[in-house]
Specification:
Elements lengths: L6 H21 L7 H16 L4 E5 L5 H8 L3 E6 L2 H10 L5 E3 L14 E5 L10 H11 L5 E7 L4 E5 L7 E5 L3 H10 L2 E9 L9 E8 L2
Parallel strand pairs: 1-2, 1-4, 2-3, 4-5
Antiparallel strand pairs: 5-9, 6-7, 8-9
């Protein structure tokens, strides 16, 4: 019996396979000037380390820029992405880090096997009706007490981007309300401990948000 893949996954894979090389070139060094991103990732890394460490997964890792940063912070991290082309680039850039192709809807990790999850702008293409499934997967795969951190554009509605870098592809970038995501996390058994929303910086169109939660111990 075959299962039809949700359309948004197919669209996201097609989009990111098309733009992978240009995306990596444009955003590969973005963390160098992203003060708040580095601060939140450092806080996450400290939580994982002080709890004893263990395997961490970056979901929607793209070409591995965040994954590589987390490894430099001392984490035992791997990366997962829907786009095979992005995974190829991540493996080439970070040959010592394990990367694999996979979906955020069906995580390839054992129950309670992860010491932390990073979802850095990786839920922004997921339709609202699929988000409870995503948070349920976070809860399933996290060890008791383990943290998950999300970054996303704060707001309402979706921005549709077409023909990125001149390629014939299109994808919806969905903004999220922090209150809504916190409610979903709570329903899934994750307790939100930190929430930060900052104003747009140069080149950004919307406020940016970070949500840090833990699975109950």
């Amino acid at each position: 019996m075959t299962t039809t893949e949700p359309e948004f996954l197919t669209a996201a894979r097609t989009f990111y396979d098309a733009v992978a090389a240009d995306y990596a070139d444009r955003y590969g060094g973005a963390l160098a000037t992203a003060t708040w991103d580095r601060a939140m990732l450092a806080a996450f890394a400290e939580l994982v380390t002080t709890a004893g460490g263990g395997p961490v997964a970056e979901l929607g890792c793209g070409p591995g820029r965040i994954t590589g940063h987390l490894a430099a912070l001392g984490l035992d991290v791997s990366g997962l992405d829907l786009s095979p082309r992005m995974i190829d680039l991540a493996r080439a850039a970070h040959p010592r880090i394990p990367f694999q192709v996979g979906s955020i809807l069906d995580l390839p990790y054992s129950d309670g096997g992860l010491a932390g999850i990073v979802a850095w702008y990786s839920i922004i293409h997921t339709p609202a009706e699929q988000l409870p499934r995503v948070f349920a997967e976070f809860h399933r795969t996290l060890a008791p007490g383990a943290p998950v951190i999300l970054a996303f554009q704060a707001g309402e509605g979706a921005l549709r981007i077409e023909d990125p870098f001149g390629y014939p592809a299109a994808l919806d970038f969905r903004r999220r309300q922090p209150d809504h995501l916190e409610a979903l996390a709570t329903e899934a058994g994750l307790k939100v401990t930190t929430r930060l929303v900052r104003e747009p910086e140069d080149g950004e169109r919307t406020p940016q948000a970070y949500l840090l939660a833990r699975k109950a111990a």
